[in-house]
Amino acid sequence: MTEQTFFDAVGGHDTFQGIVDRFYAGVVADDVLAPMYPPEDLPGANRRMVMFLEQYWGGPTTYSEERGHPRLRMRHQPFKVNPLARDRWILHMTAAVKEARLSPMHESQLLDYLERAAHSMLNTFED
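== Globin ==
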């Protein structure tokens, strides 16, 4: 018997798409984060995040097939990710994950990863 992936256990694509959609709804209304996401790139940013999260959690490998290795720090280097931006990112992502109503175990696992990832993207302490 094959062990179920996290991706499958939480509901697959629809769950991750919902989380990312809710996250970006918060981002576009955020005075700190919105400038990092040009409106014309929002659909692309949304799609890339969904593909990344799906792949990371055991779903389709579309992200790597289309974009190669994630190289998250390198891809975020052009943006000023200071503690305020990191904290706002975590705020919106936490709200989006909580609205998904995952099991407590899955919610905890996902938020733990996302918070650690957000901390690792920090690249400046300047305002």
